[in-house]
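RETRY 2/3 - previous attempt timed out on the joint model. Re-submitting the same 535-residue input unchanged.
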Amino acid sequence: MFESFPFVSVVHILVVLVAPPLLPGVINRVKAIFAGRRGQPLLQTYYDIVKLIRKESVLSETTTWVFLFGPVAAVSTGLLAALLVPLGNASAPLSFEGDLILLAYALALGRFFTMAAALDTGSAFEGMGAAREATYACLAEPALFLGLIAIARLTGGLSLDGMLGPALLHGWSVAAESLLLVLISWFVVLLVENCRIPFDDPNTHLELTMIHEVMVLDHSGPAFGMVLYGASLKLFVFSALVVRLAFPVRTGSEPLDWIVVLAGTIGVAVGVGVIESTLARLRLTSIPALLTGAGVLSLFGMILALVH
Amino acid sequence: MVPGIVDPCMVLVLTLNFHILGTPRLRSLIFVVGLHGALLGFLYPVAHQGFHAEFHGGPAALGALIRLGLLTAAIVGIKGLLIPNVMHRAVRLADIRPTLSSVIGFTPSVLLGGIGTGAAFLFASRLPLREGHEHHLLVPASLATVLAGFLVLVTRREALGQVLGYIVMENGIFVFGLLLIDAMPVLVELGVVLDLFVGVFVMIIIVNHVSRAFPEASTEHLRTLRE
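RETRY 2/3 succeeded.
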């Protein structure tokens, strides 16, 4: 697993640590442009995180260690997932056969502890958000997994390095329809996992329909800073997955490959911003239907991959 | 043997099947069923084996091309324009509710459609198909489309939803017909499309009458009909 720790791995870790909070800034800027506003600075999430880390946390008397462990788990599992996804030309710092399972369950573990922290507050409101998060995660996870199976089948690899590497280019040449369906499905999974419109509105704090924001209402100070950072890490991981799936081309030049992936993640953030500006949030009752649709698209993509 | 564009089109047809299974909105459903039919109509000349040979071949090339063009226009016109227009007209005249309801719900419908598509692929892989047909999606797409149409037919409560399910089922059979295109005379093909149109036309008239006699054209009320 750790045979060598070359320079590119250091770059990978630095990018993973520094780049993610830029993406929410890009989304907000796109939304501001659509609304005809100047919008907040691109680096606003960085400022927010620094500001929150300096602040003091207010903890409810009913909470236990689980409440504070939620944000820690969100950041650590997000970092773990980000270390598994190959970004540049070289392999990811953590790579082994079957790491796709770890990726999916690292993200699920983070979600589990976020939900546990929400339940730990004893607030019915937060419990409701946790229940919704669990329901939608149940529907989104099969879509992610079926897509991973389709890619594994087409590339013949079981590690993300192999699956999202040059072998995927061959996959696109023989079964483009299958991968296109998986790509669409994963984009829907990206939107739901990161609580974006049309599934959830990250800007609401007062409505009964919110999902993620309601789970972290009681967090404050450094804990809330970690929640923000963990959320941006998750967005970065999913964006990187989508970009690697959409552009498996390797230029051969290490810096150029990094630029392609980073520009791609920013492109995904722009896409999310455009969707948030042009779509309304779905009714809660319609969300399972859309998620099932994404799952079925992934299933269909997997069937096509198996047929090829 | 089967041109390369047919498989991506079949993927599109199968994706439209999921939309047909999942949407409760009648107008959207009619539009997509029309699109479904039109897409298959456009596939007719593509799948027509004699097309290239006739076009590049002898002096009868132009006549064959015109015949093929007219046939395609007839199929696309009937499946993609005429039938949806008649149905939109029926919705307007009979004042039918703009949303459909399903006996099992729309999400389970989509799920069943996904499972059915998987089963269709599995079944098609075991069929003793002619050489050249087994590696293409025409047979599984046909089976999956017939199944999707059947699901819509049996699960939608409204009569118009059932008519649409019937059309989707016919589309599935049409996909199967694309495999036999060189063996099937033109007249048979046109006859089938015209039969479909007449069938839909008659069903729409019945739906209109049902709507006038009862508050809504839902088959749920049929069980309460007594002498």
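The interface with chain A takes residues 7-8, 11, 14-15, 18, 22, 106-107, 110-111, 113-114, 117-118, 121, 125, 137, 140 of chain B (CB under 8 Å). Closing ticket.
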